Amino acid sequence: KLESTPDALRRNPLNKYTEGWSHVTLNVRDEAPVLGYLEGHPDAPDGSPDAPRCVLTPLGRKVEEAFHRGPSINPFHENVAFQIMPEHLHMLLHLKPGNKKHLGQIVAGFMGSCSHGYWDILGIDWRNMSFPNANALPGTDGKPLSGKELDRDRDHSRSLRGPSLFV
User: What pLDDT was estimated at residue 153?
Assistant: First the structure.
């Protein structure tokens, strides 16, 4: 599996991913430009009314709100920079000394929050869904599905509640 994994997606085995600086890029599933649209003129100077910019859609604003909520959930996590483009986003995160959460857990929480906003826009009533037969569905370990497993599958393509926003 590691040989077929692109370099950008490989983890360094010497890094704990619980402290330090991390640049994260997330791509929207199927490269759909649903987070915003580009406006302005590419040759206009910065700060001018015609300067190029990404205007956020309602979904893009929900993603931005989820980004800003992160540090209130984990005080050892600092959001340094954030840039949304129509079909992807970039984040610069600082995980402060003493942080216990793995970078993957922080990013997964952000992705889940964004998918919840996506489902709201799609009109999926995910908060009130129940799965009476969930105990009959095997999880990754063969045991019945837990609440978290109802929200995502192994490749984060969709959950039992709805489609994932990000790859």
Answer: 47
Query: Rounded distance, CA 124 to CA 116, Å?
Result: 9
Q: Is the pLDDT of residue 5 over 80?
A: no
Query: Is the full-model pTM beyond 0.85?
Result: no
The C-alpha R_g of the chain, in whole angstroms, comes to 18
d(CA 119, CA 107): 18
Residue 156 has pLDDT above 70, yes or no: no
The yes-or-no verdict on residue 85 having pLDDT over 60 is yes
Give the model's pLDDT for residue 71.
86
Q: Do the beta carbons of residue 60 and residue 92 sit within 8 Å? A: no
Which of 74, 67, 100, 80 has its CA nearest to residue 166? Answer: 67
Coil, strand or helix at 133? coil
> Order of strands, edge to edge, in the sheet holding 77-84?
20-27, 88-95, 77-84
> Could you tell me if 159 and 148 are in contact, meaning their C-beta atoms sit under 8 angstroms apart?
no
Q: How many CB atoms lie within 10 A of CB 131?
A: 13
Q: How does DSSP classify residue 83?
A: E
* Parallel, antiparallel or unpaired: strands 53-56 and 36-39: antiparallel
